Structure formats: structure tokens, C-alpha cells
Amino acid sequence: TIVLTLTIYIVIQVIKEDRGAQYFCPDNWIGFQDKCYYFSKEEEDWNSSRYNCLSQNASLVMISTTKEKHFLKRFKCTSDHWIWRDMTENLTGQWVDENILNKGINMTGNEICFYLNEDGVATARCYTERKWICRKKVH
């Protein structure tokens, strides 16, 4: 009976851990490392996309590592998705983390809003409608 009790205890612990893992990210969000990501199905302009993320206590994703870039490209499928950008005084886009350019992300375009496409990161006019990706910390 000791072995049976121990086996039941282990099974219950595994179920509890699995059940707990489901609650790290909200429904329709995907967990990766210590963050949750939402890939929209609808399309909006950049500002509306940003607002949608903020309304869910999140922000548009800013790619900060090569691993994160690969994860995002895998789950975004073939659609282009709006991501975060920071503005400089002369209205050209610039990453908050300037090291990103040394982490294997190709950037094209000279507009001020950024999106993730099949080739990497590009810029476009902010009123263009695209899907978007939100990111927030796991709770």
C-alpha cells in the first residue's frame, strides 16, 4: 500500500503541475520563456494594434533575442504582424535595444512603424492594416 499511495501522490502532483501550467497565459495566448504572446486574427493599423495590446495589459512585442524572433516567426505563419518600435526626434524608427541589429534581424524600409515579415523586420506606413503580436509577462 505504501507503493500505491506514493504512486497516487506522484500522479496527483503531476496533474496539479500540468493544471497549473495552463494558467500561466490567458486563453488564446502562447507561452514562451517567461512571457505570453497573443497573435491577432484581425487586422488593424499600428495605433489600434498597440491599443488592443494595452487594453489586455500587454504591449506590442519588441523582439529582444534571436530565440524570440524564431518563436515569433514560427507562430505568425505567413502573415505580417505589427511589432513595437521606438521613435527618435527625426521620426526615423530605432530599436530601444540597439543591440538587436547585431542579433541577426534584417531590417528593410524607411517608414516609422515596424512589422515582422517572412524576411525579418520591415517598416511601413502606420495606417496600413496588419495583424499584430502582443506580449506580457507570465503571471
Automatic annotation (TrEMBL):
What's the domain of life for this entry? Answer: Eukaryota
| Pfam families assigned to the protein according to its UniProt record, in alphabetical order | Lectin_C
Under InterPro entries, the record lists:
C-type_lectin-like, C-type_lectin-like/link_sf, C-type_lectin/matrix_domain, CTDL_fold, NKR-like_CTLD
Signal peptide stretch: none
Give UniProt keywords alphabetically: Lectin
Provide the Gene Ontology terms for cellular component: plasma membrane
Q: Which GO terms describe its molecular function?
A: carbohydrate binding; identical protein binding; receptor ligand activity
Q: How does it sit in the membrane?
A: Single-pass type II membrane protein
Q: List the transmembrane segments.
A: none
Q: Where is the C-type lectin domain?
A: 32-135
Annotated compartments: Cell membrane
A GO biological process this protein is involved in? NK T cell activation
Under what name is this protein listed?
C-type lectin domain family 2 member B
Q: What gene is this protein translated from?
A: CLEC2B
